[in-house]
Amino acid sequence: MAYSEKVIDHYENPRNVGQMDDAAKNVGTGMVGAPACGDVMRLQIEVGEDGVIKDAKFKTYGCGSAIASSSLLTEWVKGKTLEEAQQIKNTDIAEELALPPVKVHCSVLAEDAIKAAIDDFASKQN
Amino acid sequence: MKLPIYFDYSATTPVDERVAEKMCRCLTRDGVFGNPASRSHPFGWEAEKLVNEARQNVAALINADPREIVWTSGATESDNLALKGAAHFYQKRGKHIVTVKTEHKAVLDTCRQLEREGYEVTYLDVEPNGLLNLETFRAALREDTILASVMHVNNEIGVIQDIAAIGNICRENNVIFHVDGAQSAGKVEIDLQAMPVDLMSFSAHKIYGPKGMGALYVRRKPRVRLEAQMHGGGHERGLRSGTLATHQIVGMGEAFRIAKEEMAEENARILALRNRLWNGIKDMEEVYLNGDLEQRIAGNLNVSFNFVEGESLMMALKDMAVSSGSACTSASLEPSYVLRALGREDELAHSSLRFTLGRYTTEEEIDYVINKLREQVQRLRDLSPLWDMYKAGIDLKSVQWAAH
């Protein structure tokens, strides 16, 4: 399958790869997917006092499109408020990366990951 | 060394130059372009002579009688002709067929069609090493079993089934035995005088011949009957009508002739390369060989790199042609049905790559792939949350995954 240049760029030079402290109160972690399905994404966000995402890290097991979707997502969420990050749609990711139809599920997974990370952060604040 | 490197010889092979040259001589007006069925002039006679030579060459590699060879368009057609042809012809005897879950789709899908026609098919499991248990096979045969189909060499994992033993069980039970030999001709000794096989499918393009060309071996003694699937001018003793494609047939014949001559030497060379590849990667952590190492053709290595997804690894190996057991490239997210039949977990099936080596593989290419693999598997594991968890001692099976 031919990949778009943007997918290849993110796959070869993934942005914001890494891991944050799960236990930290200002960190939200979203882990979505399953090994048996061929993709697992872990997205983490560090949120400032002002509700703005200061930093984001990811690690992904999956195809090139899954890696690219999560890499792109970390770039997008940095500097956004939680409300703004919540608005990111899988279709935006799929469009930006020019994902073919069979790879759209990768962008869905990325949307799930940011939502899960925000939920995790929110649950820690209570 | 030329990039990209071809490591997909089980998908297809390039036509050997010697084969291509012979084929080219059967196309144009100064070549042998006649219809082999034309009996009234030298154009036909010459073509018929070349077709007969090719038939002898194909028969010689598998130690059969040339009259037992039926030309087809490839192994898929041979499988269809063998299974449908025998099932239809012998349906008064019974309507039960036995095959194996790891067969090629050309056999499995033909069996599905026969099920729609009212036949009953048993699909047998294999052992974790990919081989069929003989007692399992024997137990599956019934009074009304008319036909069994077991492939000689598996296309994904390269394991070699004990065809002689399976054939003997078929003989004892009066069951017609078909073998898909698409991946075995030229790679494993085939002696049809000795092996109790009734029908055997062959392909030209897996052994340096042209695509679109194959053959079906149909035993004469004891005679096996088939109902034709292609009707017309009565070519190939009525079993497969259609004008014979002289250039294709000549190509297949030459490919089989070369295979008979060079097989022993070639297998030894390819085996050394395959072992070099396996020895170069087997000390990596969490690397698993799929399929038996001993009962296996020389040119196949199917490996799972745990915690790395196969398609992303293929993307990292973009200057080499390999294939993946992960079906992420297709619309379904199902991994290889062959690896699943071995009992491999889905995640290991998703993490598999198949390297198939052949006539033009070099040591330099093998060393290149070893280095690339070691470097890229590590890079992707550094990106993998599963690798982190594994390293942290977390049992991935204990995790509640949100399957999607």
How would you describe this structure to a colleague?
The complex is a heterodimer of chains A (126) and B (404). In chain A, helix 1 crosses helix 2. The longest helix of chain A is centred in the C-terminal third of the chain and has 22 residues, at 104-125. Chain A is an alpha+beta fold. The mean pLDDT of chain A is 94. In chain A, 45% of the residues lie in helices and 21% in strands. Chain A has a 3-stranded antiparallel β-sheet. Chain A contains 5 helices and 3 strands; from the N terminus they run αβββαααα. Chain B has 404 residues and is of the alpha/beta class. Chain B has helices at 17-24, 42-61, 75-89, 105-116, 134-140, 163-172, 246-281, 310-316, 337-341, 346-350, 363-382, 385-391, and strands at residues 5-6, 69-72, 96-100, 120-124, 145-149, 176-180, 199-203, 214-218, 287-289, 300-305, 320-321, 323-324, 352-356. In chain B, helix 6 links the parallel strand 5 (145-149) and strand 6 (176-180). In chain B, helix 1 packs antiparallel against helix 7, helix 2 packs parallel to helix 7 (246-281) and helix 3 (75-89) runs parallel beside helix 4.
